Amino acid sequence: MSKEKNRLPDEMLRPAAELTPEQRDTALAFHVERLLRFGRRHKLVKELDQIVARNELLDLLGLAAPYEGKIPKEEFDTPTEILEPMLDLAAAKGLFDDQVPQYRINFETRLMGTMMPRESEVCRKFRREKAKHGPEAATDWFYDLCVVSNYIRTAQIARNIQWTAPTPYGEMEITINLTKPEKDPKVIAMERLQPAASYPKCMLCKENIGYAGRINFPARQTHRIVPLNLAGEPFYLQYSPYAYFHEHCIILHDEHKPMTMDRDTLAQIFDFVSQFPHYTCGSNADLPIVGGSILSHAHFQGGRYTFPMQKASIAQPLRDPRYPGVRAGILHWPVSAIRLIGRSSQQVQIVANNILSAWRGYSDEKVGILAHTGDTLHNTVTPILHYDEQDGYILDLALRNNRTTEEYPDGIFHPHKEYHNIKKENIGLIEVMGLAILPARLKEQSAQIADILCGAPNTSREPGSPLAVHADWIDELLAQYGSDMTPVAAHAAVRSGIGTVFCHVLENAGVFKQDDEGRAAFLRFAEKVGFQKA
């Protein structure tokens, strides 16, 4: 954050609506120079590149000449405080419709795109950093580029609400995601009028680099990717613009092809972690319901982050006498998972493939697991891999099943209906690891529920109440806590309750339940793979 804001000329701080067209253009030109100074300071542009970027910005903003006055020295970590007044002025000038949030975001991205290095330059710099200073230095540089270009929207991400919640499995992490704006009726209506588009094919395709965006597709002028070779296949590394955790990255296949989960998939994940041992890497499953991401494009997710699942202990140690170099165990975790630990990547992969192969065709009707109904397959896995200097490769394989019934039309091993007020969406990779991504509506709703615990009227049973979806849960909270809590205690109680619900949601996703029958069934499967109790 800059301490120099008071040095900005007073006329540059006035609201856009108070300025004449001439004053507005002067202010815009002033902010262009501020943005260029930011770009130079953060090495987005060099001296000669700055001339090109200035001319592009002048053209984009409809300005005839640059600002010639003095520009204050500022030390911003991100360009947000420069971009916001520029966007207000550009909207007042009619350069975009400021009533549509996506147009504002797209125009902002277009502004920053004028200072971005070419894709080939980014790739060369990444390779050079990796060769000279190592993989961590390369990702540090690439991540910083994505932050200072505002591709990773750190100012918006900081508004997300986060806390931890204790559970029988350890602390879970809860996030109410406020980063992506809610769509209003005007935007929804405009989206319906958009012609069908097939370019880019999805938001993960490499063709997103530099794409201008549209009302229903984000602008990507600041988007850059770097090529990787994983187990002989071409992939690219990019970062998520709405990071759910630190250095949240996506590893996408060169080709737009569906997600798979097989021996090759595991080999690619291991190759990524061997190349970038400071990153965790995992994959969503390859089937609907249990694959909580874009199934149409093969990709992995990772980042420099320790997830709650990685801190989980072993509930039941296992061993496979054929592979003495691999330690194993059933994880003490709500989603059924087996952990493998070993210094030999090859041996850990062999055991992991044995588990995957056995699970693909495994049925146990006593606990509701069917491998297939007709030709429809139901069993797959969610793998999560990280490297530890002491223990070597640590792979958690979460067992997934996507079967549905009349009783559970959304999925037997999916959040059950009584928890849909908190989490209805698929449980994908990030949630499996113990990080809840919850909808923005819960910010206001949880505050209203806390007020009820403090004595405010309970309106959840009234017709049309926005709290109707929470009515049963509110009754449970009132029965537990009463309605005369202090605001601080009520706030904590609601957060704790959300954490408890998320824990139950993960238990719903577990194919082997946390009871004697479930534990016995899990051991039966482990024995089928070739494991013995250790």
Structural category is alpha+beta
Helix content: 25-40%
Largest sheet: 11 strands, antiparallel
Helical element count?
A: 15
Number of strands: 16
- Give the overall pLDDT as a whole number: 93
Low-confidence stretches: 1-6
Shape: globular
Radius of gyration using CA atoms only: 26 Å
What fraction of residues sit in β-strands?
15-25%
- Alpha carbon gap, first and last residue: 54 Å
Strand order of the largest sheet: 3-4-5-7-6-13-14-10-9-8-16
Short structural description:
By secondary structure, the chain is an alpha+beta fold. The chain has helices at 21-41, 47-60, 80-92, 101-113, 119-133, 135-148, 154-157, 185-193, 263-275, 345-360, 429-432, 441-453, 471-481, 487-509, 516-529, and strands at 161-165, 172-176, 226-230, 233-239, 249-253, 280-282, 299-303, 314-319, 327-331, 337-342, 372-373, 376-377, 379-388, 392-401, 435-438, 532-533. The chain is globular.
